[in-house]
Amino acid sequence: MQDERVRYNDSDLQEFKKLIKDKIEKAEKDLQLIRESFINDQNNGTDDTSPTFKAFEEGAETLSKEQNSILAGRQEKFVRDLKNALIRIENKTYGVCRVTGKLIPKERLLAVPHATLSIEAKNMQR
Q1: I need a surface site. Which of 21, 42, 125, 126 has the fewest CB within 10 A?
Q2: CA dihedral (97, 103, 104, 109) positive or negative
């Protein structure tokens, strides 16, 4: 009887690790850009102080800040999920569906490297 769980071999795990590290680097740069954009939105410039446009600008500016805040939150979660995937690689549990215990197809992990569910498990959630 074989009681060992199915998992990706070490060479596959290293391939995923490189992919994830590259994605983390890009995601952190994107997050930095979002944060800088948010900081730059808070300037008190006098570029256009015409009263007729002021109300429209303030509404658009508030919307833009809210959108940046939402984007930043999503990006932070994405980075956190990718870092958690690196931990799973170190534990050699990466690529194993947390519901079914089956191996998540490599194609899915290449497209969504932080996935913890197979398509089968994802569909069961609906």
Answers
A1: 126
A2: positive
pTM: 0.76
- The answer to whether 68 touches 41, Cβ cutoff 8 Å, is yes
CB atoms within 10 A of CB 82: 20
DSSP string, 68-109: HHHHHHHHHHHHHHHHHHHHHHHTT-TTB-TTT-SBPPHHHH
Tokens of 117: 């569910």
Give the Cα separation of 97 and 111 in Å (integer): 15
